[in-house]
Please model this.
Amino acid sequence: MSSFRIISYNVNGIRAAMKKGFVDWIKTDPADIICLQETKAEKDNVDHKAFTDLGFYDYWFSAQKKGYSGVAVFTKIKPDNVEYGTGHKLSDDEGRVLQLDFGDIRLMNAYFPSGTSGDERQGFKYKWLDEFMLYLEDLKQKKPNLILCGDYNIAHKEIDIHDPKGNKNSSGFLPAERAWMDKFFETGWVDTFRQIHPEPHRYSWWSQRFPTVRLQNKGWRIDYINVSSNLKQNIVNAEIYPDVKHSDHCPVYLEIRNEQ
Model:
């Protein structure tokens, strides 16, 4: 296969998403590899046969706490290797990172912490971000061809949020979080969506507290598929699918050539 089609999607509970037509959407063949965040379920508590029947290998990394966090990857291309977590106990206990190797490409599916519930979790988020940055820098030495997708829970720039002034003190758009994203991209990561789409008003998450905000497209772009800089020339296409509605997030998409 000369290119990978990858979807990253925070489903906000996979069982809830399945009740809203998620499996029917998967049947439309949106991608070869589907990376999910916030599955909120153990594999054994989900009708996962629905996915394997469609030709997917499925890998799950769930949180120890029931009904919380967790990531999964459904892939029609069998990976050469799967790694669960990063070796950071606090992160791994919450089922936040799943890694798969396809030839010399390492695909990472990550659910970054949210800090919206208060100072304690915001502190955890900063600690997680710092640990993860170091982990990525170390990993890059061994695996230079990296794809990192997931819910980052950070809108990077003003173009990535509908109301930057009103949200300057909101978790997910705080100066320190945005500075982390600056540093992340400065270390050689590429924002694949922005390579193709410089235009504003493109978002991947809308607050459920205000039901009309999705209709009005008052959103945040906090879901990304980013690649290490040496894969930049391999980007074929990138997209966001706001009309796909099984969650308060929507899927983001990347097609990338997998040959060097």
In short: The chain is about 25% helix and 25% strand.
